[in-house]
Amino acid sequence: MPADSSSREGQVPGVTAVMQGSSVVVAIGGLPIRLRCDDPDFVRSIEERYAGYVSSSHNARFDFEIELAPAGTLSRDEDVRVTWDSGRWLMERGDFRAEWNPSTARGRIQQTTNPYSLDSVLRIVHTLLLAREGGFLLHASSAIRNGRAFLFSGVSGAGKTTMARLAPPDAALLTDEISYVTRQKGRYVAVGTPFYGELARAGENLQAPIEALYLLAKGPENIIEPITGPDAVRGLLGNILFFARESEFVKLVFDTACDFAAHIPVRRLTFTPDTSVWDLIA
Amino acid sequence: MKNYRYVARSKSIAARALGDETMVMSATDSTLFTLNEVASVIWAAADGVTPLEEIVRNRICAQYDIAPEVAMKDAQTLVEGLADHGLLLLSDQPLVPPGSSRGEAP
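Output (structure tokens, whole complex):
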């Protein structure tokens, strides 16, 4: 869908200058976020990057203004910092600086044209929103099979992308890198995301109730073992994307992890990388 | 810290009983702790107004086959360790865990 070329009044009090720019609405997890930038080429790159997640509606819950910084002025050589300050979230890494005011539903992003910078900001925004709704982003690949979603979680190298590559034709891949978990009508649901890893392909924009979470380990044969109690919670928490260190958010994520582990089977999947592993997933 | 009688759970934590065990997460540094069955009993009873000695006598010694002096020593080691991580507050006076003084995020 084409970018929306539009104009609006500036948000600075007392300033009534009309701002020109192109925009696109990206809806991940059903949450539409409008991204506006003066550079139409960059907006087009967003449309391509998030193909499958670009909303046909102009309605959005949040608006972000993107200001492109000259190449070379920002670098990725820093850790992410997310802090709450004076009614707004501040998000910062070497390659971007962003702020977001949930009350006004507006934010600003300063970044280079590196698409991964915007990816990171969107991930942070979604983790903050999901925390309030009993959901989370998880380092996991996920796929839908027979109407149910399966999550495969682990650190880098554990086999997330491998499981995605080995998926049978009847499985719909939601992501090979970052799984989106929401709570809907009392059920945990996995939703497709455009966040990808080595597969370099966005997941399908689909959703399904979660059947099980598998914590991945590579081994000489395929074995599934149940994990319960603190071990399940610990394994889950170790893979949840978690940026804000405000104590209230830590508690929210902890409670959600405990609740998830109480309702969704958590299993260790030791697997050898061939398609036979999927015979166990159904 | 040796001059204390009362123990209270910090408010800067999140905790959940899972079977006989309890998981505790520090909200300040996200560190996770798993308390075993006996430690969970002390944790649950750490209300800030019940002396530790009474907790050990009524909740531990009455339920588990352990000598009071051994139980008390183990309990002190436990609560001091948890206090070092900011999970428990220790005081020689009855106390109620203070609320967070920071503004809360939306």
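Chain A touches chain B at residues 84, 87, 89, 102-103, 229-230, 233-234, 237, 242, 244-251, 254-255, 258 (CB under 8 Å).
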